[in-house]
């Protein structure tokens, strides 16, 4: 099969991560990278990765007929517009989450994607984590029977910078959105009600910026599943990412991953490794597998593992969670058929 | 120290369990047992346990001046009245949970207990489980810093009988009440809001009786702690009893207990023991330790580990959870100082 | 069934442990305890346990026609003679391990037991540990197929006193003897060769007394099983007692037992409980179950779980291990049929 | 730093594995591959990997002045001669284990390597396994105090082919040799005595070829450490690779690695993943890390993590183990200073 020639838009942390992975894969090739803020370090990096073209002009990528797909790795507020431009240029699109901070913009972007008939994959990388894939497989194969309860523990090791907090869209849109997608993925249904409790317990910087750092969110699904997510911006012992699905025939738990299996026993106690430090370590395989899956979808003309509608649904839940937090009341979500289809 | 001479009121499953334990302890002695429905089996059992008196007349126990304390192990709807009678007779009281299904009756009973100056211990045995005590100790010693989130998984292995369901007061009052108490115990604060989601997913017998079998309850505490409890009436793999406390300095999880530590590895997979079957096995040590603690409180004139107010608070939460389930809305609980003190 | 009336000879740590357990069991009753060195503490203890007779004269116990069985809990060098006297007096016998430090004395004692037709149970309590029983059950039910390798880790938390070391008979006879019995029990065969390596790595007190504190022993069994035992007199993290059986259809491992299941996660690391401190905690249930089993054998006329031959075989292996350590060569053990039958 | 240009000699399973890894690493580049038996499949593979030259003539690689290092991945009986030829050609050498089946040949090869001053790394890849590296680190940092006992469990999932068995040099030279190296690595000392017990319990094919399939080997080290290794050619539950180091200040255990952390709880039991299937999966990271380490040693002029002497010492132990098995006696190994230095 022919390689999928791609352009990467945005060379921040996540853009460079994707390039590093893409260049090791036999099915893809990065032809060009665009980045608004070029510097020497980036140039050296691009050279070491064998990138032919490093530019500040995204249009060069969009107009290159050889490039079949683009990776949108820019700040969130540019996603929707870039999706529209890329779709109009006939490129398949891999876009980091969230699609946008505005449901209207997201729906507009999805509409254009639909019109142009290109593929759009949203970067909910955790769907490809081997542990959570195994949970999904157990659900789908019926090993757990009818699912009743989904429990997600999702805690970051430390808070982001204040600059990041300000432009993040808030904890639900920035952090919990991964968990909303995971809950939908595992429940196999759509959310009909959201109830969120949150607090600012860790650092006043969150409160100062109208945000929270601790939350418990209950999701009620159309098929009766109840999901519960607890989040913290600071788990001092490391990145805590556990998921459990309980059903009529059993339960399955995905525990944290650790650097080694070594257990140390001394007079001071019995100790094992902390979980992997953060998402780059914990989800390193998932970041690879999601782009392998994306390129296979392009090559085989299949659907992506996580599309525009998945992105939009997670955003709807995040928005409802924010409303619930503000009103103190559960928020109903109209059934999917009642909103404009994407 | 002198032995604490006790009478046991009610010789059902839990009453006989207490007698079995009491008779092995050096600090207590069961002088008499009363039970409304006597049969041959009970007589043989009482004999084997060396019980001097087995009677249908509870008054004999209450009037015996040698008996210092009574264990109330009768059906829930008799608890409050028996507490009042025992308190008036000057007996210390160990009463199984809940104190009653009516907050008014509970408060009346507590009022009389207060007037008579006797001790009342409510049978929230899980407080004495070695695993949960260790959690409590970690919280109290500050190892976890300020507590932020308490998570309780509490699932029974199989549903009770329809007769039991009918008189149980509903899942929140019968089953979750233990978890409400555990959440209060670990959070070290009082609940100010309850939000409950529930469903009838396991067996229509629950729905037929106006009850649920699956629930997720969120509790908000005055000190900012958020607790979340998930319950099921049927975990096919056994009695699932796990608790986790997450705080500013760390997290502590109490896992299930199992009959053995053996792990079996075959071509079919890697298998370990299911959790202990049900509460009699899982909490066997807690059932002993709670009565040891009760007798020590009597002998030393100390307060009990779990008193009448604890019983009432858990009932208030259960009642609010039921209201939340029915209305679909969070229910506020007035601060403790606003209700009549006990 | 009638209670088994017993006398206990020797009221040191292990004798008192047995009395404490026996007095809680419905099937046995301790009528008398003899102890060479009586003091006030012992008298108070006997009173608290409801022991009718505390004496320095063992003969009173042996001559009491009501006493059906004796527990021999005296120092090892008195075991063989007491077994002979008790057997001649027609008492069933529970004797702590080892039967003696001399194979000749052990065989003489077993001969008398055989002549008198009384039961003799040797206190290899670990056979009744729930974890190791489960291993045995898996072997017997064929879950592991043909057993190939047995691995035993057996490490004490700290060295005994020098006085104890002097009279212990050496590490193999005092400590490893339990592991030799466990290996025989799980292999289901007899040892044909012993190879022992040992060293004095922990404390010079062992070397001063001609003993070792660290050992690795390989046992070859008639049925092809190879067992390997590693011992240490000092595991600073607690009592390390693990056993593994590997066979043609799988493997089963019994891990250590711990006071609680709590795992603590902090910035300093992920910590769980150390193993139970020592044998009294780890094998508390086994100490109960072995005497229940002994009383049942008496009441039902069945064979004991661990008899005189088991005691003698373990002593033969211990003796061979010592010889191997001294000569640096493997030591062959003649097949069981070639030694005088017991 | 300049890339290390390498040639790979032998394109069997392990040769291709190395090429796959080398081509993904920025510090190395495979210029040529030689293989005696070329076929279409190999040509396609070489093309897909971007290998410029695929030849049957090893001499082309050895004479290429641009090639700085060779990987010897041919059958064992060619290793020594190829090492000599490569060393004479001035190439640094990475050679798969064992160096040879004859100690004389190995020593001759090491002599030439020493004369030519090239680097020789022997492929004991497990030294780079993250779990075992952590054990080594704990030993070196003194966390375990003085090491006393090393325990290695090393079991293959299924037996190799009869053809493989015939040319393998026997289980000790083919399989246990990895464990001998690991024991030396962790004990930090040299072996002075070897005692081996082995049996043919799994498949008669081993016995037919004068080999065994089950073994327990005890190694005594000059510094007092005792190591014990148990091996099986067939662990039906997967590749069982566990190592434990016990010392004066504690113990550290490296457990098996598994594809996921998921635990499944059903009415049938509590199940988790089997260990990784075999060495390609379990040691995938180690295979990468050992070549990264090799290229760094070349680039920085440092010593390799595992050199010719390490290869020779492991072979000496394997040979002694075979002799012990045949004679039934422990075999002494003269101290390292007494053999010709390498």
Automatic annotation (TrEMBL), chains A, B, C, D:
InterPro entries according to UniProt: Gfo/Idh/MocA-like_OxRdtase_N, GFO_IDH_MocA-like_dom, Myo_inos_IolG, NAD(P)-bd_dom_sf
Gene3D superfamilies according to UniProt: Dihydrodipicolinate Reductase, domain 2, NAD(P)-binding Rossmann-like Domain
Pfam families referenced in this protein's UniProt entry, alphabetically: GFO_IDH_MocA (PF01408), GFO_IDH_MocA_C3 (PF22725)
UniProt keyword terms in alphabetical order: Oxidoreductase
Stretches assigned to the GFO/IDH/MocA-like oxidoreductase domain: 132-252
Molecular function via GO: nucleotide binding; oxidoreductase activity
Record-annotated Gfo/Idh/MocA-like oxidoreductase N-terminal domain positions: 6-124
Annotated family: Belongs to the Gfo/Idh/MocA family.
Protein name listed in UniProt: Inositol 2-dehydrogenase
């Amino acid at each position: 099969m022919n390689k999928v020639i791609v352009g990467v838009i945005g060379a921040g942390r996540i853009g460079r991560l994707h390039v590093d992975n893409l260049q090791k894969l036999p099915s893809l090739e990065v032809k060009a990278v665009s980045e608004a803020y070029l510097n020497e370090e980036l140039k050296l990096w691009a050279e070491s990765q064998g990138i032919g073209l490093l530019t500040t002009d995204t249009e060069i990528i969009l107009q290159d007929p050889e490039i079949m797909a683009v990776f949108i790795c820019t700040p969130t507020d540019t996603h929707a517009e870039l999706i529209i431009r890329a779709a109009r240029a006939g490129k398949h699109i891999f876009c980091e989450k969230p699609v946008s901070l505005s449901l209207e913009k997201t729906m507009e972007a999805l509409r254009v994607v639909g019109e142009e008939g290109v593929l759009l994959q949203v970067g909910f990388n955790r769907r490809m984590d081997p542990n959570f894939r195994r949970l999904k497989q157990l659900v789908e194969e019926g090993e757990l029977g009818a699912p009743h309860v989904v429990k997600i523990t999702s805690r970051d090791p430390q808070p982001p910078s204040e600059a990041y907090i300000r432009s993040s869209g808030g904890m639900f849109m920035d952090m919990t959105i991964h968990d909303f997608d995971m809950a939908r993925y595992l429940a196999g249904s759509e959310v009909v009600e959201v109830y969120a409790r949150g607090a600012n317990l860790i650092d006043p910087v969150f409160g100062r910026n109208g945000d929270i750092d601790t939350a418990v969110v209950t999701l009620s699904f159309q098929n009766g599943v109840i999901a519960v997510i607890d989040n913290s911006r600071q788990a001092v012992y490391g990145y805590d990412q556990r998921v459990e699905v309980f059903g009529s025939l059993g339960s399955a738990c995905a525990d944290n991953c650790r650097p080694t299996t070594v257990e140390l026993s001394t007079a001071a106690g019995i100790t094992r490794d902390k979980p992997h430090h953060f998402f780059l370590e914990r989800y390193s395989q998932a970041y690879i597998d999601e782009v392998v899956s994306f390129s296979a979808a392009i090559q085989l003309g299949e659907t992506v593992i996580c599309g525009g509608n998945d992105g939009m649904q997670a955003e709807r839940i995040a928005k409802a969670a924010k409303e619930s937090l503000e009103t103190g009341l559960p928020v109903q979500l109209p059934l999917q058929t009642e909103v404009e289809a994407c």
